[in-house]
Amino acid sequence: MLGSLGAPELIIIALIVLLLFGAGRIGKLGREVGGSIKEFRKAVKDDDRPVAPAATLPVEAPLAPAAPAPTEPADPKKNVF
């Protein structure tokens, strides 16, 4: 296994990341991550507020079931097809 990372390993990783991405790109990435964290905290804080009850809509009475259509007696002389 890898084991725990100490200070020398973290410094080496940070230098490799700095070489790969450059200082400007890392700063921009840090600002974006900070903004995302700020927005997330704001959303969580807003979500904790009690929500006002929604306006209640009037409940309509259920409709009566439709009556079946009257059927006519079948005419044996009439061809269906």
Layout of SSEs?
Layout lengths: L6 H15 L1 H26 L33
Structure description:
The protein has a domain at 22-49. The protein has two helices and no strands. It has helices spanning 7-21, 23-48. The chain has 81 residues and is mostly helical. It is elongated. The longest helix is centred in the middle third of the chain and has 26 residues, at 23-48.
Short description:
With 81 residues, this protein is mostly helical.
3D shape: elongated
Figure out the total of helices: 2
Per DSSP E runs of 2 or more residues, the count of β-strands stands at 0
Please state the CA-atom Rg, rounded to the nearest Å: 36 Å
- Element string (H = helix, E = strand): HH
Q: Report the structural category.
A: mainly alpha
Proportion of residues in helical segments: 40-55%
Identify the notable features of this structure and list them briefly.
81 residues; mainly alpha; 51% helix; elongated
